[in-house]
Amino acid sequence: KTIKLSHILPTEHPVHQSLEWFAEETSGEIKDRIKVYPNGTLGSETTSMQMVQNGTIGLTKVSAALLESFSESYKILSLPYLYRDLDHYYSVVNGPIGKEILESSRDKGFIGLAFMDAGARSFYTDKPIVTPADLAGMKIRVQNSPLAIDIIKSLGATPVPLPYGELYSALQQGVVDGAENNIPSYYSSRHFEVKKFYSYDRHTMVPDVLVVSTDVWNGFTDEERSKIRNVIMKTNDVQKKNWSDYVSKAKVDLAAKGVTFVESDTPTFQAAVTPVYDKFKAEYPQFGDMLIDIQNTK
Amino acid sequence: MSFSNLNQAVNRALSSILIFFMGAMVVTVVWQVFTRFVTNDPSVFTDELSRYLLIWIGILGGAYTYAVKRHLALELLMPHLSFTKQQVLCIFINLLIVAFSSITFVYGGSAYVLNTLEHQQVSPGLSIAGHQLLIGYVYAVVPIAGLLINYYGVLDISDSFVKILTAKKGSK
Amino acid sequence: MTLLELIFSPEYLEVMPDFFYDVLPIAILFGTLAVLLLIGMPIAFAIGSAALFTIFIDFPLDKAAILVSQQMVNGLNSFGLLALPFFIVAGNLMNRGGLAVRLINFAMLLGGRLPGSLSHVNVIANMMFGSLSGSAVASAAAVGGIMKPLQDKHGYPTAFSSAINVASCPTGLLIPPSNILILYALVSSTSVQYLFIAGYIPGLLMGLGIMIGIFLLGKRYKIPQQKIVLEQRPLNVIFDALPSLLLVVIIMGGIVGGVFTATEASAIAVVYSLFLGFAYKELKVKALPSILLDSVLTTSIVLLMIATSSAMSWAMANADIPNAIAEFVLNYSSNPIVIMLLMNVVLLVVGTFMDMSPAVLIFTPIFLPIAILLGVDPVHFGIILVFNLCIGICTPPVGTALFVGCSVSGAKIGEVVPKLLPLFLIMVTTLALIVAFPALTMWLPELAGYKS
Ligand code: NA
Ligand code: NA
To answer: Which of residues 274-303 of C touch B (CB under 8 A)?
Structure first.
């Protein structure tokens, strides 16, 4: 039998390569074969999630940001400046907190198998963004989520929730003054052609999640499940390498195409987002303990 | 209430809803431009609301279009048939449509709605009275349209039967 | 229980060759579709039923039913699609509000002396509209909706006029801006900017080809050949048309100036036509519901087809039909010209069964590597691919441009298609020129600094 893994990224994207690696390794270990369908040919991230929930497809890779509308626990991962550094991020998502979040959705038809590194999101615009003051009055395209909107507001910019498909033209014609994403997306979306300054403020580090249908997962034997878990451990390392290789390659090419990279003054950004945390704690008291746990993770 | 009265009431309700949705969709997108460009405080719900209205217009409107027999078809066979055979073909096609609509729209659609409601998937930018909209309600248009298609389909089938019978009487 | 398990015993399925699993979905999909269309089932339902049947091959019927309804909703869940209903509403408002007449009078001032002037005006208007929006269906709806009453008034044959509107509306997909070129750029990682520049000449050639078609076929299809002389004085006509022309300025200026996106522009067009219609006192509030209901009808005919064809695309991707086709192409020949020709044929055929966006998403990753291997530049190939699919959206059974063109003019598809056939021939010839002479596509981008 073939188990389908759907995602929306192009085949050149490092995450696709890691998923292909995962599919190939797993297929050798279990009796079913896993096949990757890239480019969203089996549907958008939302549709893929729904198909996972009713067991039409077995696996999908979606952003943790999207999962907010499927399971509340993922919300916490979209908080800005949540981690002190990369090591802190890894200890959180690969530790008990990450595990708790991944398991939280079992009764909603899906289980998170692993977080996959998706880098950090930063702003790209027509000018360097060093401090939040540089964002004042700018229209910045955001993903449509209340939290993402609050973050942009707290930094003094105007958040514009605009469909991704309209974004290239919107950036080119000035409907919005900038957008925010990680390097691979900035690169593969070709947005660098119209916005030449990429300012590293790294406001969020929202990982991708490899998701399996609860039905499909329960259909595996215990042995198969542990074999899959083993492959996933290795996939994490493969993904780390694919990602950083791709980012360095992309950065060389971007620089050659006239993109300027700017290091932002992160502490000033961190100070500006305090109200976002206050609002989050007030609105989601149930995640208060988890937030403290994350901050206390070594 | 007589049967034709019921029929008129259904038609009028359906067309009023569609007119309202179409108007609302224009207002929503204009509001999106207005809040972004004029008041500089972009609305967060318009992108989603306009898409949901489009889904409703497309699928509910599809049922209405079926009712007024405006759907496009390749009319290759129909013109070459006698009147009675035309009616028989009409009955056959309508039966196929009712079968497709019962399986896909009514059964598949309601299962889809119930699944998404059960899993509590929400719409990220749309909230009503402080609660995020459950997206399953948006999908409810599919089974609703399915029931309407079945209703109009059965009406049309019985229409064709009547036509065949009166034609036979006339010829005798 | 799946269809496969229903028809065949498990023992039989065990020994079945792979070939069988490749061909079965293709046979079921196209077989069901052909039969249902032939007996005259409405196209939207025929496509949906074919999709349901194909998915039923390897999913139980209840799952297949959920999948189809999910894909239907998903196919409509797109902000870019809003341009379609809005331009239909705007077109209807312009007709009823007196804007259309003034605009066309103005166009006649320019082109009224040509034989078959209103048809040429239609093509030119589609090309101009194409440089505003990236949507063929929006163009067919807006331009076709405005031209229809005028062409009726001057005795233009409905079927041929619809055919011209249908065949010329995709020019806007090549003339920038174009959402479909952006989509191709993303899947193929080519530059959007250079693709846009590359689209100008092929887009203009497509339009020019249709105009040549009007010259060649005009007499045979009884297009009025006499000059149209306006009774009003030219200056009056111009003055009269100015407020309506301002619509073009507002939309163009709004998009270029970054006030709104091309999709949002369609809603602004509705508001402006409404405003002018009231200002001319030709539009009454009482008439609005019926205008909106007319627009709903025209819109939903097409939307339901987009919805069910999105389920069909899913069925195709799920059954690996695109890969089977690619393998067929590569196994058939190793001669680059033959392969290029085959890919064009496949894309033309695919375009007749699939809508544009899924076709680009599915076939770019399959065909582009082959094309690059043959030495075709990705920008050139993108234009070839989109041109092919432009022809595809004008052909039944899945031709959104054809559907919109027919629904705004009220013509029957069966009457329009025969009139379209000679125009297809011209389009295919233009496409052949673009394939054979890369310079037609690549000259402008190379002038702008593109290096392959
Ligand atoms: Na265009
Ligand atoms: Na077609």
So the answer is: 288-289, 292-293, 295-297, 299-301, 303
